[in-house]
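Researcher: We are triaging several targets before committing to wet-lab work. For this one, the compound of interest is adenosine-5'-triphosphate. I'm pasting the protein sequence and the ligand SMILES. What I need is the predicted three-dimensional arrangement of the protein with the ligand bound, expressed as structure tokens, so it can go straight into our comparison scripts without reformatting.
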Amino acid sequence: MIQFTGVHKWFKQLHVLNDINLHVTPGEVMVVCGPSGSGKSTLIRTINQLEPIDQGSLVVDDMDLSDKKTDINKLRAEIGFVFQQFNLYPHLTVINNITLAPIKIRNTPKKEAEEQAMQLLIRVGLAEKRDAYPAQLSGGQQQRVAIARGLAMRPKIMLFDEPTSALDPEMIGEVLQVMQDLAKTGMTMVVVTHEMGFAREVAHRVVFMDAGTILEEAKPKDFFCNPQHERAKQFLNQLLTPMHGAGALCD
Amino acid sequence: MSILSNFQVIADNFTYFMIGRWPAGPLGGVGLTLYLAVVSCILSFFGGLILGLLSVSRHRWISWPSMLFINTVRGVPLLMVIFWMYFLLPALFGKVPESQTVIMALTLFTSAYMSQIVRAGIEGIGTGQMEAAVSTGLKHWQAMYYIILPQGLRNMIPSFVNQFVSLIKDTSLAFIVGVSELTHVGTQINNRTMAFPTEIFFFIAVVYFILCFAFTSLSRWLEQRLAWRKAI
Ligand SMILES: Nc1ncnc2c1ncn2[C@@H]1O[C@H](COP(=O)(O)OP(=O)(O)OP(=O)(O)O)[C@@H](O)[C@H]1O
Ligand SMILES: [Mg+2]
């Protein structure tokens, strides 16, 4: 579904992605974690080409991103992206946030698009907010609408870049729940997150990044119980102590 | 003679001040000032929008020449632009009415300034909005049209209003090429009557003030009607 082969990327001299090799299979949920600045966002943003790659090959849903002829807008329509800062359109109501792309890109009739959007809103538990503006919603609600918007084009892949990092703690659960439900439907998902509980419960695989490289790639259980690299151990310790202590996620 | 009676000159020439020789002859006075302002205002709204969009283009071969053009126009006094048009347009297109020369000059000049308001307005909308829009599969222009511009334009309204107020006042420069707008009409009447320059030019100033004030109030009202709940 997503195949990175020897991918490199630089910001000026900064080597943000260094020889990335990664394969995400259909229906797989992959969690990406790692310290700040390690290149997680850059990695996930290359998948829908919000960041172009400089070297190597990246094939997403049988489309080769290094091929100039690949229709990038078509690719993006197949991929939902959920941002840390939600990025809902503030001048549009919830329902219009969701229906804009299907109406403008797929020429879906308005009525049909709205019916589909309502289905999505029911799924994320916000049917009664259809006519609200984003500013009238809590952070957790906005993020759930953003997920619904991402699903509106019926994508094959959903990408999440720290979807709960901008949320108050009491709202994190509702967003993770929606993501977990989505995973159960068999959606292919790549999730950058520090929510290790989510990684353990939902992910099929965890990828640990540091300084632009993938240091570890393992099943959640193996990653939490038996991290191979010193950096990964440090990272897990920092994340978990003093609340739980290392190994709290391993049972 | 009381000060007030001096204003008789205004009353005597009131119709001429307001509409010139219209309908028997060409429109003049306040009527022509408004005509120049409204037409230039509408044209330079679109001119500014187009120039602004070109100047933020991702393609350097588009943004670069547009910025050069914009900065050239902004670096020249309006009077010069009016003179250019006055001599240039007839050379290119044969006879062009003076009022249209002035409209072209005002449009060109104001568009250059408007374009930078548009540019700032677009750049003021965070990159997150563009990224969100294109990541749903919208093309760049669609994202611009449906997402960035509607938000940006709303933020631009106060600056637009300032620019258009300047435009109303700038129409007075049309008198230099003999277009009989308000200032020109005032000069004519002053030359004819000789005795009341203070009264005449005071009156003209008041009229400009009223026009600008009315326009500002109208746009403030419009802005409130356009309001949507401000984001995040
Ligand atoms: N557009 C850019 N231009 C230049 N440098 C950038 C750009 N975007 C990111 N970087 C740099 O690239 C590195 C990797 O950034 P990235 O955002 O991918 O890290 P991250 O792992 O997502 O970090 P965080 O956990 O803080 O979100 C950082 O050092 C960052 O400063
Ligand atoms: Mg990041």
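Researcher: Any quick observations?
Model: The first helix of chain B runs from residue 3 to 6.
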